[in-house]
Amino acid sequence: MHDSGMLIRHWSTRDGIVRDTDIMSGMFIVLQEFVRDSFNDRKNNLERLRFGSRQVALVRGDRTVLAAVLRGRYLNGLPAKLRDAVGDFERHYGGVLKDWSGNPDAFPSVDVVAWRFMKGKPTDVAS
Amino acid sequence: MVDDHIKRKVLLLGDGAVGKTSLIRRFVVDKFSDDYITTIGTKVTKKDLRVEYPDRAVDLTFMIWDVLGQKGYKNIQESAFVGGKGALLVYDVTRADTIRSLTDYWLRNLGKVLGSIPFVLVGNKIDLVDDRTQGEETLEYLKESLGVRGFLSSAKTGESVEACFLQLARDIVAKADTRLGRHQGPEEEAPTLIAVADQIVTDFCDLMGGQEAAMPIVRQQMSRAGVDVNSPTLQGLRLAVEYLADAESSFRNADEVEATKLRRLGWIKEAS
């Protein structure tokens, strides 16, 4: 997700998110900002959400947020891997991200991010 | 086409209780609770729309951020502005304080975060006034002083709701066109006939309250006048203006129709 709330890319191996992913992206960013504002803390970020057996791990870079929705209790080092992925992505696309218009085609190699985390080919790839 | 498909974040701004959320409920198929706005400050909705020009159509997806209007939530409001590519600035025609807020609060804060972005003025709740004259005069003054388009609307009756969003879409497409160098540069003094045709169509659509109702008439009258939208002629455009005036005469008074016709003929003359 771009820090404007616009979705850059969504991957899924199963039917995990039932609602519109563009809107989910925006609302994740809204929630993130709401929490930062509530605690009057602009340095830290909302890093994890838990809902039933599902949890969301969130990592924020300079201009993007990478969120992973997963089932189970343990993250097994996932946040560090997400941070690496965000760092690599932002290094590669820093110029585009600075004033991104909202066109997802501006990131032709974005799927590399998914290949790091998802075994096999994602069954539902959308932006 | 500017792109295959343009997706943009747009902002819905204005004081509390001016009717922003009601406007959006008129415009989008909404599945999420409005409680988000009061609980966490913003609600995001989505709308796909198509902007039609005489020679092309552009598909857009608007991600619409309905931002809490109460002042004093500056951090939440300003963080919602990030990445916005356009805005609807809404005021309540029955409350003068909401008009002052547009310039004193919303435009000032918006400018600090985003600089200059396209925006459209919306004077909402026009259904609540008996005499529209004052509302029209205020809107004209605002439009002129800010150099933007604007509409008097009613979320209750639906008046001009779609037109507001479509105008913003047109302004955003125009900005994208300019960025990509698709328009004539500033050194071009006279507008091209294609640009004039576009201007006439936009004008007609605005008067008809939106493209959905207006475009079938436009296509019919352009075709009747023999206008090839990719290469319009002076004569064809003049004829089309006459035919569009005929179409308008069934729902506007003769003086208004004549004034509109003369204005459009003036645009053609400028380009000739």
Describe this structure in words.
The complex is a heterodimer of chains A (127) and B (272). Chain A is of the alpha+beta class. Chain A is built from three helices and five strands. In chain A, the strands form two sheets. A three-stranded antiparallel beta sheet of chain A has the order 2-3-4. Chain B has 272 residues and is an alpha/beta fold. Chain B folds into two domains: 6-179, P-loop containing nucleotide triphosphate hydrolases (Rossmann fold, 3-Layer(aba) Sandwich); 193-271. Helices cover 50% and strands 18% of the residues of chain B. Chain B has ten helices and six strands. In chain B, strand 4 (86-92), helix 4 and strand 5 form a beta-alpha-beta unit. The longest helix of chain B is centred in the middle third of the chain and has 19 residues, at 96-114. Chain B is globular. Chain B starts with 5 loop residues before the first strand and ends with a helix. At the A-B interface, helix 1 of A face strand 1, strand 2, strand 3 and helix 3 of B.
Provide the gyration radius of chain B in Å.
Answer: 19 Å
What's the number of structural domains of chain A?
A: 1
Instruction: List low-pLDDT spans of chain B.
Output: 184-190
Helix share bin of chain B: 40-55%
Shape assignment of chain B: globular
Largest sheet entry of chain B: 6 strands, mixed
Question: What is the strand and helix layout of this fold?
Answer:
The complex is a heterodimer of chains A (127) and B (272).
Chain A: E1 10-12, H1 21-38, E2 48-51, E3 54-60, E4 65-71, H2 78-98, H3 111-117, E5 124-126
Chain B: E1 6-13, H1 20-27, H2 35-40, E2 42-53, E3 56-67, H3 74-81, E4 86-92, H4 96-114, E5 119-124, H5 133-146, E6 150-152, H6 161-179, H7 193-208, H8 211-224, H9 234-248, H10 254-271
Parallel strand pairs in B: 1-3, 1-4, 4-5, 5-6
Antiparallel strand pairs in B: 2-3
Helix pairs in contact in B: 7-8, 7-9, 7-10, 8-9, 9-10
